[in-house]
Amino acid sequence: MLKDVRIWLPSYIARKAGTGRARRPVSILFAFADHFEPAQKPDDSLELQAGRVSDWIEGYERCYAGRADSLGRPPRHTYFFPQEQYDPPILDMLARHCRRGFGEVEIHIHHDDDTPEGFVEKINTFKKQLESHGLLPVDRATGATAYGFVHGNWSLDNSRRDGRWCGLNNELTLLRDTGCYADFTLPCSPADGQTRKVNSIYFADDDPLRPKSHDTGREVVFGGKGSGDLLLIQGPLALNWRKRSRGFLPGIENGDVSLTNPITRDRIKLWIDTGISVKGRESVVFVKVHTHGVKPKNTRMLLGPETADGLGLLETEFNDGKNFILYYVSAREMANVVLAFNDGADLPVGELLDYRFVPR
Fold it and tell me: Structure pTM?
């Protein structure tokens, strides 16, 4: 687990040393970035995939319907659906589920040795397909379709050392030009696609001649009106001294919620303490965790008592109105708050969730 820690540890230490205690109450924006992949194997039938999604939706709505944040809303999964697994009946099911208030669908892609033309064709075709189901948000300013993005195999902008599972050194530019409002891939440690920059919300500029242009960037500042080729909203990455590796080394906390990594009080505290925020608005902390929700071994945990207990902690101990205020948000809503702060919008968080990008 520590094989690639050298990539990000210096930045992590420097950032931790400079992080002070946020002014209370702390507003927590909590988002599930779900890498939602109904096909777990290449030969999984569409019938099997549809059954998994149907079971997930039924279980999710049963398990999560009674949960509520400070606005009375249930957890809102953002289903980053794989472009290469598109199937109309499955997206119809997800669209109905999302219209009932349980989440939103955005774009996920697995590709290898791709070309700019091939990538743009994939994204534009998938956008039209999702639009046909009433999915993907619209930019208030232009009326154009926009999308949030997660890269498969943790290889955004050709960031793997072996060059696999992407092939595009200009991917940030292509994402910008096809309407991507923000990327939610990171963190990905221990994968080597991990950036040096950690626990940050920032704009990156593309160098089309080199991979991993998002390794660095300019952090979003309240009222700074920053810009770049791509906005990146990272999840928490930290050393976890309560979960040891090899008996004495700290484990890695990377925001993964899975069968072996349920939501616990210690993890919630660690996620909040990373202090992912917009500079000048440190009392609003962005907690983006990731999961593979429809993966059978994870589904049982995510729709079972372990997750119910974890969310119960969030909704009580971390939503008391005095020290913490909890907001369950989608990726789109999280990005809207970031962009509002970037513009200097000085309004309550709950009034910024539809700031720029709105549901179709």
Answer: 0.95
